[in-house]
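Two proteins follow. First one:
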Amino acid sequence: MLPLILQIDLSTNTQAESPFTLKKNKQAMSSNLENTQAQMRKGVLEFCILSILAHEEVYPSDIIERMKQSRLIVVEGTLYPLLTRLKNGGLLQYRWEESKSGPPRKYYSLTPLGEKFLEELRLTWNELVQAVQLTTQKNQPS
């Protein structure tokens, strides 16, 4: 397993700050937090989508709905390019199905390569979760 490499800026300002600077810093922290949360979600998006597709063929709007139910919001402008990239990478396949209302629909599923890829992602995810839990435990031995 390759180590997860993170680059973090640990520099801090130790001087007393004015109320204006504190407000500005709180706004910056809020913005940084939102950005970090978005990046974390993006990092697991591919894993979640492949996991959904592992169970059955799925239409993209169903993927969006399942993600929404899990409180992981993904929009079409993010999903469709990702599905195309995964398909071009040989991890997904699709079939067309006529729709009773409107144009034909693409239903996506995993290829055998996609199944193997997902299996490796699951192992990586479990290792990552374990590493994060060990790192963030409050009562770490010194």
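Second one, unrelated to the first:
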Amino acid sequence: MVYRGTLLALALLQAAPTQASRATDVIRWHGDGVQIYDCMRAGVGYAWTLRQPDALLTDAGGHVSGHHGAGPSWTATDGSRVVAHVLTIIPAPRPGAIPWLVLQAAKHDGCGELAGVSYVLRTETVGGVAPADGCSHDRAGATVSVPYQASYLFLQPAEGASSGAAPCRP
């Protein structure tokens, strides 16, 4: 576990050195759902292309805490939402698992748990990889949902630093 934490810390520091050095842990949620892929033309052939994730997010006690969907976005049960973009992709240590990600918040909606999040880390992934075959001209437009699980760690700036989000006013 120390190795994984060190790897993610280094990736975050490389992706955003100034802000990352001042980020602190906010929330850790478990995601359980599917990665949805569409069979689409890609270059001279066809390939499964990620449309969006669709996952239920739960806390350490197993209580529903939110939803992960297109954007990519994470919406808490309190209505707060963060949309982020990928900064760094780290190959998953587990074969057949989608990569680990370092994402930076690009947009916030609502007041609540996710209002001040500046970074999202996706780690400890299981499954979710697009099928290796089955996408062809005859199947163009087909959709497949691949089960996956992941841990999501939401970070916010340390005391006195800014997340870049507008102040939250209820």
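SUMMARY FIELD: Residues 2-15 form the longest helix (14 residues). The longest strand covers residues 23-42.
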